[in-house]
26S proteasome non-ATPase regulatory subunit 5
Amino acid sequence: MPNEDRELFHNFITKLQTENDIKPILNDIKNMFSFKPPSNAKNTLTCLGVSNIIRCLDVQDKANVDLTCEVLKVCFDKFGAGDVIKHFTGHIMYLLRHDKDCVRRLAVDEVFKSVKTDQTSFPVAQHIDVFVAVAQMICDKDVGVANKAVTITSNLPPEVYPKILEEMKIALDENSSSKCNAYEVVCNIAMKSPELFTLCVEQGYIDHMISELSTDDILYQLNILELLSRFAVKPYGIHYLVKEGGLDKIATLIGDVQSNPLSGLMLPGYLKFFGSIAHHYPKEIFAKYPVFLNSLFEAIESSDQSVQLPVALDTLGFIGTTIEGKLCLAAIGAQFIQAVDKVGDLIKNGITEIKIRALNCLASLISVERDKAKSNPVDHRVTLMTREWFRSLNKPNGAMEFLFETVKNPFPDIKLAAFILLDAVCQHMWGEQDVARVAGFVEYLLDRSVSDTKEAKEARYDIIKRLAHSSAFESNILTRLQKYVVEGPFYMETNLQVAMEEGD
């Protein structure tokens, strides 16, 4: 059978050179290999090659080109990951540099197979030219090809990156989209290890990114900030930015943004950048870059509820997720307390999207379980602070009553956000005691007839699990809470059970 397959395939590829109408022949080849076992097809293809098929790409007829790509894909699919590169290296290089988009997509997809799983046996270094070609395709005008090239280039063995990064510099002379693709690859590489970060620095990419922040292209500037923030949270990343003055330059740009008529679009990017760093290093950022804090608190007081305020709320909550973040925020004093009061006001009076963001922000400030490095037991200062922050929700009293009403909100997104805040509150003994004090709250939580989304049912269940062993409740309430936990979040009485109860 293998000899018959080779003879048949040989006849087909010979006809491709002599026949004017090649579509029927291409379809014959496609049909031939579509149903062949991979081992048989692979032997035939490696023996006779695919050169004659690839020559069919060099025509103007788009239908012929598309059909040829289909045939090649059927052929290539018979090979294991990376095997096409091993057997047809020259052909893959040709396909990667082809002028037709569909051909480049076919080739880059084939290269992607060699890196999408743990292909430790594939010798990337031996085929470095293929991967250099792919790295340069981050500039491709076809977005799909460029994105796939970014993914491939970001997931290569460390030993090939000196060559890859050197050859990829052509992207820095292209448009902003291509440069952002290069920066994304660089950031993905830089985050892998201090050694690879140093390589990216030595190749000049990091300094180039920072210098490009002076651009007038706002979208480009924001993309750079987002990418910089990815490795800035690494100790070696922040160390470099501080040592080389990169962070100082970015802080200066925040001040300049305030006088820019487009500050409403630009400031959120800077808040996200410094916020992501302050989440890890709040003490250092607060001390050295007060311009960030001032901009953050001004944004929280901002009337711009479409861009600045949502990002400011998210940023404040992200910083306050950690215990250190909470303590550093509290140390700011009146400016922070005023911000907390504003968050409470937005929960009560904000539009729906802002109300949800504010609920999530306050939940992050109050929660003590989102910090993986938290001490056990929790710092007593945090217990006292979080209680005061929550009670500012409805001064002088009644914060839990207000949260009870919010939990009953008919809008699913608001209800879920309220449950998230309640869950954060119930991480504290004072929160459990406040829930026990509000008449009807526990009964509402235990009421399975309330219509909830799946997410809300799960959030409600998590809260009840917290309360099921709390000393804030009497034994009969604890028994009901524990029964709810045993039954699970989605328990429903069957109609038969109900009918039997009614009959009794």
